[in-house]
UniProtKB/TrEMBL annotation, chain A:
Keywords: Germination, Membrane, Transmembrane, Transmembrane helix, Transport. The chain crosses the membrane at residues 12-30, 42-62, 82-103, 115-135, 142-165, 185-207, 219-241, 269-289, 301-320, 332-353. This is Spore germination protein (Amino acid permease). Signal peptide: none annotated. The lineage of its organism: Bacteria, Bacillati, Bacillota, Clostridia, Peptostreptococcales. It comes from Alkaliphilus hydrothermalis. The keyword Lyase does not apply. Its main location: membrane.
UniProtKB/TrEMBL annotation, chain B:
It comes from Alkaliphilus hydrothermalis. The keyword RNA-binding does not apply. InterPro entries: GerAC_N (IPR057336), Spore_GerAC-like (IPR008844), Spore_GerAC-like_C (IPR046953), Spore_GerAC_C_sf (IPR038501). Keywords: Germination, Lipoprotein, Membrane, Palmitate, Signal. This is Spore germination protein.
Amino acid sequence: MDKGNYQKLNQYHVIFLINGGIAGLGILTLPNDLSSMGFNQWLVPLILGLVANLALFPMIKLCSNYPKNNLYEINEKLLGPLLGKIINILITGYAIIALSRVLRGYLTLIQTTLLPQKSIIGPLIILLLLSAYVVKGGIKSVARFAILGFFLTAWTIYFSQWPIINGDVRNFLPLFNFTRNDFLYAFHRGYFSMLGYEIILFYFPYIMDQKRAFKHASIGIWITMFLYWAVCASSVVYFSIWQMSHLRYPVLSLLKSIQLSFVERVENFFIALWVFLILSTACLLLWLAQKGIKSILKKPTDLSLYGVLPIIFLMIKGPIPNRYEVFLYENLTIYGGYFLNLWAIILLFLHYIKQTREGKEAA
Amino acid sequence: MRKLLIFILLLSITVSSGCARRVRGPKLESMGLVGVIGFDLAEDGRTEMTVAMPQFPYAFEEEIQFFSATVDLTHEALVEFTKKSDKLLKYSHLMVVLFSEKYAREKGLIQPILDMYRNCDIGDDVYIAVTKASAKEIMMMDLPHHPTLVRYLSFLLEPREETAFNPFATIHDFVRRSTSNVYDPVVPYIEKQKDKSIKISKIAIFENDKMIDTITPEEANILESLTNRKKLSAIKLETEEKDDLGNPLYVMIEFIQSNVEMSSNKNLDSPKVKVKLNFVGTLMGYTGDRNLDKPEGLLALEDLLNKNMEKQVFDLLNKLKKLKVDPIGVGQEFRMYHRGKWNKDLWREAIPNIEYNIEVDSKFLNTGTID
C-alpha cells in the first residue's frame, strides 16, 4: 500500500509503538521492584512517566534537526565515521542484551508456572522465529503488531476489580511516607519497566507527522503509565508489604484472585496472553538490532536479521556463568537505557556546537 | 524447486515425529488429584500429613483414598505418597486444608502455608480450617448423610450468607493477615458431631500465626460486621426484659445489612476509637407481647436492641484487647495517620490501652410478610 513511501507511520502507529516498546516484561514484576516504597509505590509509575516524558523532549528535538536520519546515521555524522561506528556497535549490543533479557525473563516465568517439566528451547525457538517474521515486514509491521498486542491484553484491566474489592483501600494512606533512599532504590529498579521509548530515536525518520511526534509519543507514554499505575494501585490494596517484597510475580497473584463462575484458575490463561506484550517489545528490539547491524556493515543483507537470532539463542541457553548473567541482564540493560537517554542530550550539544562552527565558517 | 524442497522437509518432519521417543504426559485418569490435606502434630514434634484423593473411575469400593506420612517438609509428603500410589499425585485440585488445634497452638501455621503459597499448582483460594480433634480423624470419618468428604468440606467452608460469621479464610487471606503490620488472622474451627456431620462450631483467633483462643459464632458475627462485611447471618438476641414467667425475651433478626464507621484520635499513646455500627434487618421472631403494629413499638424494640448490641460489641472488643490481637484491623485507623516506620509490635503494645466509644444504630425494615 505504501511501498516506496519512506514515511509510513501515522499517529496511532507512534502511540502504540511507544506503548509496545515500554510495556512488556517489567509490568509482571513491577510491584515487587517498587516494594521498597511499601504502600506508596503507586506514586512511582507517575514519576517514571514524568521523567520519561521529559527525557523524550531532547530526543525529539535532536531528531527534528535530522529528519531523515536515524540515530545510527546521526552518530556517524556528528562523531565521525570511526567513533560513530563504535557507538553504534555498543547500541546494537545493548539491543541484543535487552532482547535476551525480555525473552529470558518471560520464558523463566512460563517455566516456573505453566510448564514446570519442559525445557524452554521449544518456546524460545518459536518466539524468535515469530519475532523475525514480524520484523521482516519492517517497522510498520512491528507497529501493527504492537497495536494488536495492546488491544488483546489491555482489557485485562477489567479484572482489577477483584483485587480491589477483596482488598483494603485504607492501605493507601499515609501519603508520602517514604525516605529519599527508598524512593531512589525503587526508581532504579523500576526504571527497566519504563525503558522502550528511547527507540523513537531510531524510527523517527519513518514518522509521517514529525511535527506532532512529541505529542503522540507522550500519549503513548501516559497510556502505559496509567496501566502501570492501575497494577500498582491494585497490589497496594490487595497485598501486605511483606507479600509485595517477597512475591516474585505479583501480577500472577493478583490474577489468582479472579473468581469466575464458569472456569477456575484463569491466571494461567492471562500469563499465556502476556506473550503478546513480550513479543511486541521483542520485535521492536530485534528491529533495532538488525538496523544496527545493517548500518555497521553498510550492506543490506538478510543476514542482519537471521544472524541475530542464534546470538540471542546462545545468550539465553548458553553457558554464561551466573554472576555474569546477573551483571549482564540486570545492570547492563539499565545502564544502557540511562546511556541512551543521556546520549540524546550530549548529541544535541554536539549538534549546536557544529552548527555554530559552520555558522562562523560561513560568515 | 525451492517450494518442493520445503514441502518435502515439512512432510518428513511431520511423519518422522512418530518415531520420536517421548515421555507421554499423564492422562486425567492416571492423575491423583488431592482434594483435602490435613496437618497434625506427631508425637516427636514432626508434622503428620494426610491427603484425601477422590478416585476416578468409581471402580473401587472406597471412593476416597487416603495417604498419611510423618514428614519434616511439606513437599516431602508428595514424594512419600507417590511411592505408595499407582497415580501421579497433583495438588492442583486442592480445595481445603485442615490443621489440628494442637498443631495451630503449638507449631504455628505459617511454615506449611507458605510452602503451599510458594507452589504454583495450589491456588490462592484454598480454604483453611482448624479442627478440634486431629485432622486425620475428621478426614477419615464416615459420612453417611452427606456428600463425599471433599465436596462436603469445600461447600461447608464456602462463602454463604447463612454462615457469614465464618471469616472464609483462604491461603491468601492468611498470608496477608499474618504478614501484615496491622491484622491478625481469623480461621473457622470445625468439630465432629455425634450425628456424623461436621459443624463450624467456633472461630479461632490467631496471634500472628499461632492460635490463642476461640470465639462463639455470635461473637464472630459481630466481628465480621466490624470488619465491614455487608451481609451478616441471622442474629438472635436475648433482651434484658423478662416475660411473666421470668424467661428472657428473644428477638430474631434476619437479612441483615450492616455498615461500620470507625474513626480514631490518631494518637498511639492514648488511643481512642469511635465505632459506629449501622444495621438494617427484618424482624423474624419476637417472644414478647409488645404491640409492633405501631411505629412506637418498633422504635422501642430498636432501642432495646441497640443497647444490647452495644454491650455485645463492647464485650467482644474488651476480650480482643485482653488477648492483645487485632483481627478487625482497628490499627489501620492509626497506621493511616502515622508518619515514619510502623511495625506490628508498636501496634500490639498500644492495643490494651484502646478506649472504645461504641454506638449502634439499628433499623427494622419490616416484620416479614405478616405483622
